Amino acid sequence: MKNNEKPEVWLRGPLAGIPDLLQPVAHALLQAQEEITALVQDFPDELLWEQPAGVASAGFHLQHMAGVLDRLFTYARGESLLENQLAYLKAEGSPPFPGCTAADLLRILDDRLLSVMQQLKQTDESTLKEVRYVGRAGIPSTHLGLLFHAAEHTQRHLGQLLVTARILISAKE
């Protein structure tokens, strides 16, 4: 670690207001946010929707992380998805509006992360073992399972985003 770098989020101690059992979820999400923010600062917007070797674009990963967090935290509340959430899912991978930049997608993701952190703060730990249902098929999971998967899935797409961005940027140089 360089002198001017902070340790990873999980090494900075407990996060105020987050229930003890949900600290790892919050740490993983905030770590992803920091790494994505650092990446987006220097990411060329003209590469946002490029798909090197047919892999998902950087834009897709940014959109997908925000969308998955929205969907999984909706299920964690015991709710079904709304039409606008289904429409967002179908549109992932395409620019949401003309001239969309990486900074725009980061703002959308940051807003979603702010919302899910609030939901984590309001989560009663006694509900974590309760069954929650996923999707139209109503596949059973647990409240904790959904929250953990949201963090894990975000981290998975962060890794893919970092690799895709490195490939795109190095090909441009």
Automatic annotation (TrEMBL):
InterPro entries: DinB-like, DinB/YfiT-like. Pfam families: DinB_2. Residues 29-161 form the DinB-like domain. This is DinB family protein.
